């Protein structure tokens, strides 16, 4: 974090680095103009970090791109000033702007996978920026590029500079983007969701890197994110956007302690804390209005608990200073409202107890799934020409799932969590026989799935449904929602005709849609609503088990909690079991009863949420948990940053799969012996590590003890 | 998968394809109507002499023997002897093929030179006047069959404007200028007809690439429009276009067969026609085989180029 700038510092300088005044950006659409950035004003000092938060579509990216004049037709900047280093950028010519972009103002984009040109080496992409803005020779630019790759922590920069983007992992590509951003030592970096596409452990490293680079170079950063945890960790002050307007700006501490705008309060309240138990996850109800069809008064009025008649009839409230602090808010009642208290009910009872005395509903034993490395029939046949002479042929495998065992009891939710590529989805698909397992046993209600023929499997499919990450691709776009849900019922002979229609209507209401939704097509719904349709579709056949593969990852944060609550509610009513796959340990925390932490195709730790989130910890679980950013600026977490990246599953490390990155690695044992997944203190908490219980218990629980004490005696239903 | 593996596998597939091509070439000529011996000897031949000739040509042996014989000959570089010309097929083809190649290559070059810049230009001016007129220009090219374009070109450029000769062929080693002036019209007509596909592919490929995140980033780095289009976008956009170009080259080869008639161009097209008209079985087989080989090799070349331009393929796929 940069050094706090005092008021006198600011005065001493001749004005702020960036002063945005009344910036207005519009898009011409068929339905009339959309104002995506409406009279936005804020300023940013040298070396300072400002966060820009808000729901999807609030206008954060448009505002940021407007600053660099990167708005394309049909968009247009229609008013205001962007004063940067004392000059109004909106008055500059395009050629002058090109000298500023990448040089004085640089951008770090969101998606490391698509933001680098696939046919140019990373070196070319860094040096072209340097050569564009600095008068240096080719070899000098190359030297500078290697230096900047070094600075962002890319190992062996000198060898890797001529590699292509696809030869780097996601985290490394994001480092390359950071290197490009800082390569010309800009005064301002605009980072648009720089870590959203990354796993938590990588996210933590990139945020640290950004902070470090910023401190070293004295760069100002405009950090766009929907993650208040990221804001709390990195920003000095924050702007909150809603429906194209900046509705509040405040110092970081003030924003969390004393928000001035009701929307800010709701936004903060909608974040589930990792260390809190909830009966129901807090949600931000309703949706942001369509920018083409804004209400006449305050845009937030339809969702605001404090709205009065004056709010609905007056114009847009303007962004004015509130009280004597430094905050500004666009709310008529900002001076009268005290929003410092959270409106979320105190911690709830947490999850119910699960009866695990009987038969498990679903059981997986020693499941293995190896894929051929490469495509096609002969894809895994690999010719190696080493050593001269005739080429030798070898077959190689990707060990996506390697000896995984777990069980799921009726009414229980079991989570699979781990970084991308660790084999979570493959476990689910193989267990359901959507993929043919390489080895192992799978039982559903005692029946051996691995021995059944395909017709028997098909009839069992009714009992086991699946919900996917991307609802759009799993719903047939040419069928109405009624047809999609109804067809599932017909196929398994549950209901037909009038009865079917009746049930479809009931189901749609059950998942929070209207009965009328039955006659609409999937594309007429938002992402969250489509996921509700997918849930209705899964429920239509009255399954006993639903496998949810990242069901909320593609959804806006404010919608995620609604879907998770719905799943919880359905489970309570129908006693369905869930196998819940997610890379987001925060989500797992609130929806699962037990969780398996996976690393490189194997289970590292398995136990109840309580057990996994409390010591003893597997070193991998510990680092995963420590990396979750907390939406609380006062909280210092002692994060463990993992070195390197996940090894290739074609060629996994010997011994413990985590040994190449483990901060607690003992030595030779870890490199030679594969640790067993063993019960710690004889209970039902399993860890696969050579360390002793004491050595794995050096950190406190991630579930605050006080809160546990409060909640555990509470009667659970 | 390394580049070696990639080429290794492609060559394997080609060998299999080639086997089927020989089967087809052989089958087609053997179900062609008309008796070869009868054709050679004329309607007044006696049954005896017909039979004698059939035996001499080996036509009354079982089909599979004839096939194996033919393939063994091919492997030894012997394509048989033309019935009509009495010369080795290989020699006839070797003489005509370069002329057709010259025409097809020139046509493809003209098409590429016209269509790629046009496609890029259309894409960066999407839905504006330059885009619409470029698309219309290209559309005209495919609005008529190739041989009609040949006739139109002759009519306009040779007969009315009298700029080029109406047809014929002169070897470039004898008279370079005369050779080139005779090449312009047939290659131009052919190239014009090919322009539309390549241009449309370039345009849509460019449009897709221009909306990619990395183009956004290039702009945010301060790159000029020229650098963005030429360095960042075109290099990506051209990858799928290369396949289309190679495909168009084989298409051009098909068109050449027709155009050679129109322009009196003594290439492999006219040779094939003559061969078919005279039921010259060894020659037909040879021609089919050679044309099929050219198809296969241009597609193979397209794949190699594709791999060369796209590093993700060069090193075996984006995991
Ligand atoms: N090219 C465009 N044409 C029309 N409308 C657009 C265009 N680009 C953005 N908009 C509109 O501008 C509004 C703001 O979009 P913007 O991308 O800035 O949101 P955001 O706050 O960055 O959201 P997210 O968190 O999803 O990135 C949206 O309503 C969007 O539909
Ligand atoms: S102006 Fe009224 S409706 Fe708008 S945020 Fe303030 S209190 Fe709520
Ligand atoms: S076995 Fe060794 S390397 Fe593996 S997690 Fe335990 S301490 Fe780390
Ligand atoms: Mg955005």
UniProtKB/TrEMBL annotation, chain A:
It comes from the Archaea. GO terms for molecular function: ABC-type nickel transporter activity; ATP binding; ATP hydrolysis activity. Keywords: ATP-binding, Cell membrane, Ion transport, Membrane, Nucleotide-binding, Translocase, Transport. GO terms for biological process: peptide transport. Residues 695-717 are annotated as: Disordered. It is an enzyme of class 7 (translocase). This is Nickel import system ATP-binding protein NikD. Pfam families: ABC_tran, oligo_HPY. The complex is composed of two ATP-binding proteins (NikD and NikE), two transmembrane proteins (NikB and NikC) and a solute-binding protein (NikA). Residues 20-268, 362-625 form the ABC transporter domain. GO terms for cellular component: plasma membrane.
From TrEMBL, chain B:
It is a multi-pass membrane protein. It is found in: Cell membrane. SUPFAM superfamilies: MetI-like (SSF161098). PROSITE patterns: ABC_TM1. Residues 97-306 form the ABC transmembrane type-1 domain. It comes from the Archaea. Belongs to the binding-protein-dependent transport system permease family. This is Peptide ABC transporter permease. It comes from Haloferax denitrificans ATCC 35960. The lineage of its organism: Archaea, Methanobacteriati, Methanobacteriota, Stenosarchaea group, Halobacteria.
């Amino acid at each position: 974090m940069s050094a706090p700038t005092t008021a006198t510092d600011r005065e001493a300088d001749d004005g702020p680095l960036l002063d945005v005044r009344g910036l207005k950006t519009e898009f011409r659409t068929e339905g009339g103009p959309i104002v995506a950035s409406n009279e936005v004003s804020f300023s940013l000092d040298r070396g300072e970090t400002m966060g820009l938060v808000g729901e999807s579509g609030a206008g954060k990216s448009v505002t940021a791109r407007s600053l660099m004049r990167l708005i394309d037709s049909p968009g247009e900047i229609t008013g205001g000033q962007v004063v940067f280093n004392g000059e109004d950028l909106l008055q500059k010519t395009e050629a002058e702007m090109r000298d500023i972009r990448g040089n004085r103002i640089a951008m770090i984009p969101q998606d490391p996978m698509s933001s680098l040109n696939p046919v140019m080496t990373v070196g070319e992409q860094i040096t072209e920026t340097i050569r564009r803005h600095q008068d240096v020779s080719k070899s000098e630019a190359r030297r500078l590029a290697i230096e900047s790759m070094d600075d962002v922590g890319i190992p062996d920069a000198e060898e890797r500079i001529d590699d292509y983007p696809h030869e780097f992992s996601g985290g490394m590509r994001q480092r390359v983007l950071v290197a490009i951003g800082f390569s010309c030592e800009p005064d301002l970096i605009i980072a648009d969701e720089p870590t959203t596409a990354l796993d938590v452990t990588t996210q933590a490293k990139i945020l640290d890197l950004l902070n470090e680079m910023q401190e070293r170079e004295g760069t100002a950063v405009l950090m766009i994110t929907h993650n208040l945890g990221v804001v709390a960790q990195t920003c000095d002050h924050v702007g909150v956007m809603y429906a194209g307007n900046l509705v509040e700006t405040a110092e970081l501490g003030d924003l969390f302690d004393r928000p001035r705008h009701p929307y800010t309060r709701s936004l903060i309240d909608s974040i589930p804390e990792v260390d809190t138990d909830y009966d129901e996850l807090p949600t931000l109800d309703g949706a942001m209005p369509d920018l083409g069809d804004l209400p006449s008064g305050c845009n937030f009025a339809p969702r605001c608990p404090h709205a009065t008649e004056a709010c609905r009839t007056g114009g847009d409230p303007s962004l004015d200073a509130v009280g004597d602090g430094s905050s500004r808010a666009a709310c008529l009642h900002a001076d009268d409202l005290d929003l410092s208290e959270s409106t979320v009910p105190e911690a709830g009872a947490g999850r119910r107890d699960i009866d695990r005395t009987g038969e498990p509903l679903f059981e997986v034993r020693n499941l293995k799934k190896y894929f051929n490395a490469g495509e096609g029939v002969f894809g895994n046949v690999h010719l190696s020409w080493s050593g001269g002479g005739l080429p030798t042929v070898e077959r190689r495998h990707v060990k996506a799932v390697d000896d995984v065992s777990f069980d799921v009891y009726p009414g229980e939710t079991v989570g699979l969590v781990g970084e991308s590529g660790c084999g979570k989805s493959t476990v689910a698909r193989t267990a359901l026989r959507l993929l043919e397992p390489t080895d192992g046993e799978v039982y559903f209600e005692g029946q051996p799935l691995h021995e059944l023929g395909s017709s028997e499997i098909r009839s069992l499919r009714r009992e086991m449904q699946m919900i996917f990450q991307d609802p759009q691709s799993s719903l047939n776009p040419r069928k109405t929602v009624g047809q999609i849900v109804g067809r599932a019922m017909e196929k398994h002979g549950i209901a037909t005709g009038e009865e079917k229609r009746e049930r479809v209507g009931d189901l749609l209401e059950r998942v929070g849609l209207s009965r009328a939704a039955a006659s609409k097509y999937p594309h007429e719904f938002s992402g969250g609503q489509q996921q509700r349709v997918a849930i209705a579709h899964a429920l239509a056949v009255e399954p006993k088990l639903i496998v949810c593969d990242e069901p909320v990852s593609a959804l806006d944060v404010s919608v995620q909690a609604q879907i998770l609550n719905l799943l919880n509610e359905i489970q309570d009513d129908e006693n369905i079991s869930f196998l819940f796959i997610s890379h987001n340990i925060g989500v797992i925390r609130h929806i699962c009863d037990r969780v398996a932490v996976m690393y490189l195709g194997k289970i590292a730790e398995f136990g109840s949420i309580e057990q996994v989130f409390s010591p003893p910890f597997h070193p991998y679980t510990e680092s995963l948990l420590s990396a979750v950013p907390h939406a609380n600026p006062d909280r210092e977490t002692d994060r463990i940053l993992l070195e390197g990246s996940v090894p290739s599953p074609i060629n996994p490390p010997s011994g413990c799969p985590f040994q190449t990155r483990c901060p607690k690695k003992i030595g030779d044992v870890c490199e030679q012996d594969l640790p067993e997944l063993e019960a710690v203190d004889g209970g039902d908490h399993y860890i696969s590590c050579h360390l002793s219980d004491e050595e794995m218990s050096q950190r406190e629980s991630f579930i605050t003890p006080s809160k546990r004490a409060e909640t555990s005696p509470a009667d659970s239903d | 998968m390394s580049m070696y593996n990639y080429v290794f596998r492609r060559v394997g597939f080609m060998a299999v394809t080639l086997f089927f091509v020989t089967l087809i070439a052989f089958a087609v000529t053997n179900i062609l109507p008309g008796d070869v011996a009868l054709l050679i000897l004329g309607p007044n031949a006696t049954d005896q002499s017909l039979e004698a000739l059939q035996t001499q040509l080996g036509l009354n042996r079982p089909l599979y023997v004839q096939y194996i014989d033919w393939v063994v000959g091919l492997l030894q570089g012997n394509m048989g002897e033309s019935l009509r010309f009495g010369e080795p097929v290989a020699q006839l083809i070797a003489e005509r093929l370069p002329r057709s190649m010259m025409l097809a290559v020139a046509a493809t070059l003209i098409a590429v030179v016209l269509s790629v810049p046009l496609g890029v230009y259309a894409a960066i001016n999407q839905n504006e006047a330059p885009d619409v007129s470029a698309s219309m220009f290209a559309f005209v090219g495919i609005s008529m069959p190739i041989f009609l374009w040949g006739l139109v070109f002759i009519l306009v450029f040779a007969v009315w404007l009298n700029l080029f000769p109406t047809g014929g062929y002169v070897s470039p080693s004898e008279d370079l200028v005369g050779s080139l002036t005779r090449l312009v019209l047939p290659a131009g007509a052919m190239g014009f007809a090919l322009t539309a596909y390549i241009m449309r592919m370039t345009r849509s490929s460019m449009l897709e690439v221009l909306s990619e995140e990395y183009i956004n980033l290039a702009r945010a780095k301060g790159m000029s429009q020229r650098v963005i289009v030429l360095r960042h976008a075109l290099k990506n956009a051209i990858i799928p276009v290369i396949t289309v170009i190679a495909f168009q080259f084989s298409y051009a080869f098909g068109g050449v067969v027709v155009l050679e008639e129109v322009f009196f161009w003594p290439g492999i097209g006219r040779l094939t026609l003559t061969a078919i008209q005279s039921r010259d079985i060894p020659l037909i087989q040879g021609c089919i085989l050679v044309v099929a080989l050219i198809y296969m090799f241009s597609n193979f070349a397209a794949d190699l180029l594709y791999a060369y331009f796209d590093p993700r393929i060069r090193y075996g796929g984006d995991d």
